């Protein structure tokens, strides 16, 4: 009977493609918007993800995210190093500075000071140059999105001079970094250089990055650091989540994207529901005949479920493929740099599609189930 | 209302209906459509159920072939008291024992003639290709074997009706119910259809019920049951006068 | 469509196949483009406690390498031009060895002058002695004459006056000699003061002067002229946050790593703890750091190795007394 059900469905090309469009459009809208939403709020954690060595971040108790931090005295580093379970700890400075470009433009930049000796705190990869270029005097590495903003296309930023708070800085490398939420240009330099670049305040140490000894979990060590030093210690995951939560709490992004996702759902229900109901109504006599001939309600439900399943599968696939093409197509755009589709998102939209089809299928099938087989004689 | 005790059915009766009452709710009032019908349908005969619109013939036939519950009474089809079956058993009973030819054929527009004819077999679970092969044999017998791969909309009305007939017979039911087979046809075509039905549908172990009010074909009946206002007013080989 | 089998249905067969292929490709892309959020091990070793300290209570501190004698900034007693620098950085010197000389020409001229005055005074003494002797002989002659008339009384008075004058002149000449000798001694001392010598045996760490440069004794000059110190052994001065200071196990050896060579672990022996807790200075990085943190300074002696140099920053781990009971605060 499913053989018949599928042919009934595809025989009506207009409604079949209408249903496909409805499901595909909903899937695309939900998947794509949720993908952008997830990636956008994850920008709040880019600072954490850009320091891949750190397993625990230690900060002043009032610090909240990588960008909202209060500096600590320099001895905090030694306090952290004194805690058992800390394999290593290095200083990490994050501050903002004004930079004067060669053209004379003034631009706010984030200066990130990484450990002098080990360069812990740099992004995983360099887009251009080697990490060791930072050992040169006055050397900074610019992040790749910043390089595109500062320098016209084609012009290599390597060797360009910047004026950072009256200090000379020379760009010697380009870091392959995840852009921050605000897309601020980021300059990476060594901690001691960063102290020179950033106007002096009493305390300068923004974070202490910690590696955990073998056999210890980051959670244990973070708890111990908090207990023994009175500082705040977050594991990498916790701190990334804190950055994401900060964006969610302080921007309207969740509401906006939530509305769009909801609209996608509603549009899906509307298009699919109407089309499906029309399709069932068109075929109500055939269904009635089938019931009279001897097809149980259970089989009818399975037929409609098969029709919904086919529409759902194809429409969902088209929607997901559309999202993938969208993300893939825009991957060169700096705004979309590092965007990816979390595997949970297609699953969520799959659930949404299933719900849409379940709702509309139930509405549509009610009329079939109510139809008296005797009606075929009238 | 007392219903006179009905005599038991003949043993060989295909359908034995006893004391069929059917009420319909219409707002506050209840309309009684059938007033205690006793009827028998015999195998090997072409039985006409004749009556004006509103006479209750459609209701009767629906009840007799197990698609409408009677308010009271019992129906035995080939010895099975069908309204004592569960819903699913009743549906499967129809599938195995009854073939339907609907007035508007109700073919499925998106599958070809052979598949339409094979629907009861497919519903029984037979693989589609095997069912289509069987249906094609029957379509050949109905002289539309060369149209087997066409969709219903590519067929003429007569051809569609033959497909519908094939569908009613493909699973070799013991009871065939045919609703107004000639209503949309001119006299000649109507007779041809009835001849065809007589040829293919009537068999010694098969009962055939034709619901009609087309007096042009009354002469082809083996037996005519006339219904008026929910009561059987005539049961015999010939039509009574005045019709 | 001619290439396709006649019964092939786009919507029933092709489309689902396309959908499945699309899903597989999409899944492959999604899985393949998931970001790498794993942590990685540092490429270079950061300073870390090793051995027993890795799992034992410990206190960490940053320190700076200094000579056992601390750094001695050699000064000059007198201002003047540098005429000669006798040492270069890295030289080992004994106590009292000449380091540099300051222009001593004026002092030498004074000495020559004083020497001349000595000679003059000596001549005057000789002359006065001669005159005194002559006067005394004359007076004795007169006194020996018994005949009062042989010498007039006035002659005698004159002879007595001459003798007294010669005696006075002799005294004066002796005084001039003493004065001249004193002046000569002063000049010699000054010449000595213009020669700067090593106060202790040790190593020259820095030489910031050259012949011809002017060394001033006043107005806190920016750089010491010469820095030296006893570099055998080297000491390391480790700052411990005052909050952590109570935990330090005084007297236990420390594990020290130079900056940038964290894989090198050197065990340093305890020397002493500075009695005074001081505001943190000589910090990890900037000289302009101003902090309200106070630190306990611990002095450790480094074993003999050529890995450390004076002024180098180190990271140190020192055993602590025991795990702080119940979380420290």
Please tell me about this protein's structure.
The complex is a heterotrimer of chains A (378), B (243) and C (329). By secondary structure, chain A is α+β, with helices and mostly antiparallel strands. Chain A has two domains: 2-43 and 252-377, no CATH class; 73-230, no CATH class. Chain A is built from twelve helices and ten strands. A six-stranded mixed beta barrel of chain A has the order 2-3-8-5-7-6. In chain A, helix 1 crosses helix 11 and helix 2 packs antiparallel against helix 12. The two termini of chain A are 25 Å apart. Chain B contains seven helices and ten strands. Chain B has helices at residues 57-64, 87-97, 113-117, 119-124, 128-141, 157-169, 187-201; strands spanning 13-26, 29-42, 46-51, 72-77, 80-81, 98-101, 175-179, 207-212, 223-228, 231-236. In chain B, the strands form two sheets. Chain B has a six-stranded mixed β-sheet. A four-stranded antiparallel β-sheet of chain B has the order 2-1-4-5, covered by helices on one side. In chain B, strand 1 and strand 2 form a beta hairpin. In chain B, helix 6 runs parallel beside helix 7 (187-201). Chain C is of the alpha+beta class and 329 residues long. Chain C has three domains: 51-68 and 231-327, Elongation Factor Tu (Ef-tu), domain 3; 73-103 and 196-227, OB fold (Dihydrolipoamide Acetyltransferase, E2P) (Beta Barrel); 105-193. Helices cover 33% and strands 24% of the residues of chain C. Chain C has helices spanning 10-32, 105-144, 153-193, 242-245, and strands at residues 58-67, 72-74, 80-85, 92-93, 98-102, 195-197, 202-207, 214-215, 226-229, 234-241, 254-258, 266-273, 278-279, 294-301, 313-319. The two termini of chain C are 81 Å apart. The model of chain C is unreliable at 282-288 and 324-329 (pLDDT under 50). Chains in contact: A-B, A-C.
């Amino acid at each position: 009977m499913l053989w018949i059900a599928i042919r009934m469905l595809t025989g009506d090309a207009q409604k079949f493609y209408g249903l496909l469009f409805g499901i595909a459009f909903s899937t695309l809208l939900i998947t794509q918007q949720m993908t952008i939403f997830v990636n956008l709020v994850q920008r709040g954690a880019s600072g954490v993800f850009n320091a891949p060595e750190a397993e625990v971040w230690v900060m002043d108790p009032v610090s909240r995210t990588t960008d909202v931090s209060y500096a600590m005295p320099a001895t905090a580093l030694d306090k952290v190093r004194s805690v058992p379970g800390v394999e290593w700890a290095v200083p990490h400075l994050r501050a903002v500075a004004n930079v004067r470009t060669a053209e004379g433009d003034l631009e706010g930049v984030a200066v990130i000071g990484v450990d002098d000796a080990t360069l812990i705190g740099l992004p995983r990869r360099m887009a251009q140059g080697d990490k060791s270029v930072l050992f040169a005097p006055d050397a900074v590495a610019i992040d790749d999105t910043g390089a595109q903003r500062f320098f016209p296309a084609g012009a290599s930023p390597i060797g360009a001079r910047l004026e950072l708070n009256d200090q000379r800085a020379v760009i010697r490398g380009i870091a392959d970094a995840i852009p921050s939420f605000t897309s601020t240009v980021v300059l990476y330099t060594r901690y001691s250089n960063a102290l020179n670049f950033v106007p002096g305040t009493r305390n300068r140490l923004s974070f202490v990055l910690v590696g955990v000894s073998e056999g210890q979990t980051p959670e244990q060590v973070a708890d111990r650091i908090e207990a023994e030093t009175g500082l705040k210690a977050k594991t990498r995951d916790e701190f990334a989540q804190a950055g994401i939560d900060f964006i969610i709490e302080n921007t309207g992004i969740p509401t906006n994207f939530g509305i769009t996702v909801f609209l996608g759902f509603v549009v899906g229900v509307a298009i699919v529901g109407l089309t499906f109901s029309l399709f069932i109504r068109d075929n109500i006599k055939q269904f009635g005949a089938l019931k009279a001939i001897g097809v149980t309600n259970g089989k009818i439900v399975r037929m409609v479920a098969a029709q919904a399943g086919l529409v759902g599968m194809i429409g969902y696939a088209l929607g997901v493929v559309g999202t993938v093409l969208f993300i893939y197509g825009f991957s060169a755009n700096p705004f979309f740099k590092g965007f990816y589709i979390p595997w949970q998102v297609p699953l969520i939209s799959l659930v949404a599609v299933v719900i849409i089809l379940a709702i509309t299928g139930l509405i549509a099938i009610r009329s079939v189930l109510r139809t008296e087989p005797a009606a075929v004689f009238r | 209302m007392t219903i006179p005790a009905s005599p038991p059915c003949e043993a060989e009766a295909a359908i034995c209906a006893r004391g069929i009452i059917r009420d319909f709710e219409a707002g506050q009032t209840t309309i009684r459509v059938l007033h205690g019908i006793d009827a028998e349908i015999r195998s090997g005969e072409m039985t006409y159920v004749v009556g004006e619109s509103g006479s209750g013939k459609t209701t009767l036939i629906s009840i007799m072939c197990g698609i409408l519950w009677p308010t009271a009474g019992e129906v035995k089809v080939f010895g099975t008291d069908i309204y004592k079956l569960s819903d699913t058993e009743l549906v499967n009973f129809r599938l195995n024992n009854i073939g339907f030819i609907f007035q508007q054929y109700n073919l499925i527009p998106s599958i070809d003639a052979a598949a339409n004819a094979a629907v009861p077999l497919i519903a029984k679970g037979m693989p589609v290709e095997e069912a289509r092969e069987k249906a094609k044999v029957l379509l050949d017998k109905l002289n539309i074997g060369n149209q087997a791969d066409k969709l219903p909309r590519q067929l003429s009305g007569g051809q569609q009706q033959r497909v519908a007939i094939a569908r009613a017979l493909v699973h070799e039911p013991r009871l065939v119910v045919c609703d107004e087979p000639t209503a949309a046809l001119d006299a000649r075509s109507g007779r041809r259809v009835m001849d065809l039905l007589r040829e293919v549908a009537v068999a010694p172990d098969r009962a055939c019920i034709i619901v009609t009010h087309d007096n042009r074909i009354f002469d082809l009946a083996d037996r005519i049951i006339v219904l008026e206002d929910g009561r059987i007013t005539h049961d015999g080989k010939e039509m009574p006068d005045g019709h | 469509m001619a290439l396709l089998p006649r019964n092939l249905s786009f919507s029933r067969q092709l489309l689902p196949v396309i959908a499945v292929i699309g899903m597989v490709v999409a899944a492959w892309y999604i899985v393949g483009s998931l970001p790498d959020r794993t942590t990685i091990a540092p490429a270079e070793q950061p300073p870390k406690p090793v051995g027993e300290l890795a799992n034992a209570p410990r206190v960490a501190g940053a320190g700076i390498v200094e000579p056992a004698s601390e750094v001695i900034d050699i000064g000059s007693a007198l201002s003047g031009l540098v005429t000669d620098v006798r040492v270069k950085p890295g030289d080992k010197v004994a106590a009292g060895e000449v380091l540099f000389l300051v222009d001593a020409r004026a002092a030498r001229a004074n000495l020559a002058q004083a020497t001349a005055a000595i000679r003059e005074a000596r001549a005057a003494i000789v002359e006065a002695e001669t005159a005194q002797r002559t006067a005394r002989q004359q007076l004795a002659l007169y006194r020996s004459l018994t005949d009062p008339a042989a010498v007039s009384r006035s002659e005698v008075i004159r002879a007595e006056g001459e003798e007294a004058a010669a005696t006075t002149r002799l005294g004066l000449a002796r005084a001039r000699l003493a004065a001249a000798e004193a002046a000569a001694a002063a000049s010699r001392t000054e010449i000595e003061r213009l020669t700067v010598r090593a106060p202790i045996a040790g190593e020259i760490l820095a030489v910031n002067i050259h012949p011809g440069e002017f060394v001033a004794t006043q107005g806190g000059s920016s750089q010491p002229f010469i820095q030296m110190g006893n570099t055998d052994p080297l000491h390391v001065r480790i700052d411990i946050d005052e909050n952590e200071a109570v935990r330090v196990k005084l007297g236990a050896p420390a594990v020290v790593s130079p900056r940038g060579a964290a894989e090198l672990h050197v065990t340093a022996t305890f020397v002493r703890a500075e009695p005074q807790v001081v505001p943190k200075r000589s910090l990890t990085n900037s000289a302009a750091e101003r902090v309200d943190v106070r630190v306990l300074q611990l002095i450790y002696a480094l074993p003999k190795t050529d890995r450390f140099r004076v002024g180098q920053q180190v990271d140190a781990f020192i055993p602590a007394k025991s795990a702080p009971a119940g979380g420290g605060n």
